[in-house]
Structures are given as structure tokens and as C-alpha cells.
């Protein structure tokens, strides 16, 4: 469903053919579509499998699909058939970008791989999101977010010190892969202005997961020690963790001596500043347990949200731990336009704010095959 016309976005005039499914690719293309790109989402006849990943559902479409497919036109196409392959080539004739997450080798088998397409469409930017890439020891194998978290060390540093390795509670690898794919597309579009040529963008879950290992990889490189789990505590900074208050947990992220002094004064605990165990960050890190005990005693009479705001206004990073409902209804979330609403549609807004060409909600997520006739008629291809 299209909405009233809005001012053009930064990517207006950019045509993207989106063959991707599930999350990494669709997250990438929604980000680009929010900023004006004309994204045509092509699904197999049975649809993107996430249409069924519910409940909850809206009009028989799962919330999972709705969350990453707005601002796109939708079309169904069977790419395993010659007719579908030919129609895709027609769509690519004036396209700027192709985004796909097929297992490496699949599109090549259909005559739609990068080498085959670039010969016909030298300006086309071909972005592939895959698990491991096409070659190497794991080349060609399928990739999944949770498996990447396990394989690439994220789970090993996530969780309580005496507990099990734990998956991050959201698909962080898929989403950062989508972000990196979007960055790669923009880099390639910029380079094409100079060269006039497209190129192949090889974005993998594996690489993106490894790229998230800061500061753990850096710590390992320079200490030789294998990082472990520290719960909510930071391996390099103290106090930097969740602590209890009268009303619930508060997260303190105290990164320097000035912030530590402000925290001590806010808690009427100036004695901490004269304690040699807490003189600087290295000392505080060495005596983390003793510091945690003192802070816990001081925090017991405080309300988490009230104290967190007080500390923030004094330049001390702090936050009450909120749930999803809390943050989606928070006044600042609304002020930042991070919740979009249109009829029955609710979605998380774009975090990328441009002053002259802002992101906008122009189309609701498409029904399966909603724009088949519109797209076919535009290229004068008989169904």
C-alpha cells in the first residue's frame, strides 16, 4: 500500500532489486528504501518464509516480516524457471543495485551470477549476503545468526561468569551484516560516479560477527589471554555494569575519574575518592568486587530512573534497565520519531537523520505479489 507523496529522499532515483529473504538482506534494503530508493522485493511464489514467522500476525503476515520490509514494492518470481530468469534480466536493465542472499553458486547455476550479469549490465552493483562467502574452508556453507554468534566468539563472552555461553537476545549478526551491506552499497554507488562501473560486494555473516569482537579481540592480541564472560561487567572499565537499586537495576558506565567523582558525590560517598583502591580505572578494575559492594550499599535507597537521569545531567553515563514496552513508549523515543504509525502499521523508525532529505514512510510492507501487475506492465512483459 502506497502512502501520500513525500519530499524525495537521499536515494531517490536509485533502483534496487531485492532478492533477499529473512533478515540481513531485507534489513539492508529497508534502510535504503527508507531514504528514497525504489526497492522491488522479489519473493519466490511461496513468499519470504518470515511471512509465517508468527504469531503475532497482522492480516496473516507475521510481525517479523512487517518489521523489515516497508517502503518496498513486492513481486513474486520463480527464478528456477527460464521465464522468471528472463523477467529478472528485464528488471536489471535499468537497476542500480542487486541485493541477494542465495547460497553461493545458486544464481550462477541459473545464469544470474555476478560475472554473467556484469557482462550485460556493467554498471550494476551486485551485493551478496551469505554465511561464509563462496570459497575458503567454510565457503558455500549456509549461515545463521545464532550459529555465527556461537562460532565467532560472541557467545563465549556473553553471559554470567559462572553461567553458560549465551546468545545475544536479538539477531545482532544478521542486523550488523545488513548495516555493513548498506554501507557497501553506498560506497559502491559513490565509486561508480568516478568509474562508471559496478562491482561485486561480498558481505558475510562470518566476517561481520568477527568484526564485532571489540574489545575482546584487541585484548587478546595484546595480552594473550582468552576473554571470558563477565556478565554485564566490562572487561576493561569499572564501575561499568548493572547494579541493584530500590526500584530495579541501574547500569553505570563510568569511564573516567571525573565521572567517578561525580558518581561519588551523587551518592554521598565522597570517601570513595580518598580510597587508594579506587584512585583510577586500573585500581578500580583491580578492586572491582570491593567497589561493587560499596556502590550496592549506597544505591539501595535510590530509584533507578530518577538517579539515572540525575547522573546523566551531571555527565555520568547511567540508565535504568527498561523493557521493550518502556522504550517504545518513552517520550524521547517519540520525540526522535523512532516509532512510525500508519493505520494498523507500527514500526521502528530510521536512526539515520538527514536534515534536507529525511527518511520517510512511503509504502507499507507489501502483500505477497502485491505489485506484480504494476511492475510487469512498466517493463512491457506479458505475464
Polypeptide structure, described:
By secondary structure, this protein is of the alpha/beta class. It has two domains: about 15-210 and about 350-380, Crotonobetainyl-coa:carnitine coa-transferase, domain 1 (Rossmann fold); about 240-320, 2-Layer Sandwich (formyl-coa transferase, domain 3). Helix content is about 35%, strand content about 15%. It has 16 helices and 13 strands. It has helices at about 25-35, 65, 80-90, 105-110, 115-120, 145-150, 170-195, 205-210, 215-225, 255-265, 280-285, 290-300, 305-315, 325-330, 330-335, 370-380; strands spanning about 15-20, 40-45, 55-60, 60, 70-75, 95-100, 125-130, 200-205, 240-245, 250-255, 320, 340, 345-350. It has a six-stranded parallel β-sheet with strand order 5-2-1-6-7-8. A three-stranded antiparallel β-sheet has the order 9-10-11. Helix 1 links the parallel strand 1 (about 15-20) and strand 2 (about 40-45). The protein is elongated, with a radius of gyration of 25 Å.
CATH topology of the largest domain: Rossmann fold
Q: What topology, given as strand order, has the largest sheet?
A: 5-2-1-6-7-8
| CATH homologous group name of the largest domain | Crotonobetainyl-coa:carnitine coa-transferase, domain 1
Q: What quaternary form is this?
A: single chain
Summarize the main sheet.
Answer: 6 strands, parallel
Unreliable stretches covering 5 or more consecutive residues: none
Contiguous helical run count: 16
Mean pLDDT: 95
Q: Can you write the helix and strand succession as a string?
A: EHEEEHEHEHHEHHEHHEEHHHHEHHEEH
Please give the number of β-strands: 13
Overall 3D form = elongated
Q: Under the CATH scheme, which class of the largest domain? A: Alpha Beta
Helix content: 25-40%
CATH architecture of the largest domain: 3-Layer(aba) Sandwich
- Briefly note the structural class of the backbone: alpha/beta
Alpha carbon gap, first and last residue: 22 Å
